[in-house]
Amino acid sequence: MWAKKKPTPNLGDMNTPMAEVKKFYKYWDNFESWREFSQYDEYDVNEAQDRYEKRWMENENKKLRSSYEKAERKRLIKLAETCYNLDPRIRKEKEEEAAEKQRRKDEKKNFKA
Fold first, then answer.
1. Greatest CA separation found in the chain?
2. Does residue 49 lie within any of the structural domains?
3. CA torsion angle for 30, 35, 37, 39 (degrees, to 10)?
C-alpha cells in the first residue's frame, strides 16, 4: 500500500524459479515507502514566534519522525528475515549447496588419498 515501487513481486509457490524468489526477498530488503509519520509531530511549526524557533521545532519533529521510521524499517526487516529463514525453497537450496560443498570436499580428500 505504501510502496514507492509497484507492482510488488509475488511470493510464489514451490514451483517458482529461485530467481523470482530471490527477487521477492531483495524487494523487501530494499523496501522504499512513501509513508510519513507527521502525525507524531510534537510541535506545530505555525505557532513559532520566529524563524529560529520554527527551525528548532522542525528539527525536533524530524528527529521524532526518524525514530518512528527506523522502528517501522526494523519491523519490516524482521518480517522479511523471518519469512526468508522459514521459506522451504530457501532451505532446500541451502541444503543442496551444503551437499555440493561436502561432495567437493570428499572428492578432494579421496583424490589426495
1. 84
2. yes
3. -170
Q: What does the pLDDT read at residue 97?
A: 93
Which amino acid makes up residue 98? A
Domains identified in the chain, total number: 1
Any domain includes 6: no
Closest to 23 measured CA to CA, from 33, 12, 14: 12
Nearby residues of 45 by Cβ (< 8 Å), 6 or more positions away: 54, 57, 58, 61
Residue 3 is assigned to a structural domain of this protein: no
**Whole domain around residue 82: which residue ranges?**
18-112
Task: Judge contact between 9 and 31, C-beta under 8 A.
Answer: no
C-alpha cell read off for 110: 579421496
- How confident is the prediction along the chain (113 residues), in pLDDT tens digits per residue? 777 778 888 888 888 888 898 888 888 888 878 888 888 888 999 998 999 999 999 999 999 999 999 999 999 899 999 999 999 999 999 999 999 999 999 998 888 77
Nearest-angstrom CA–CA distance, 71 and 81:
15
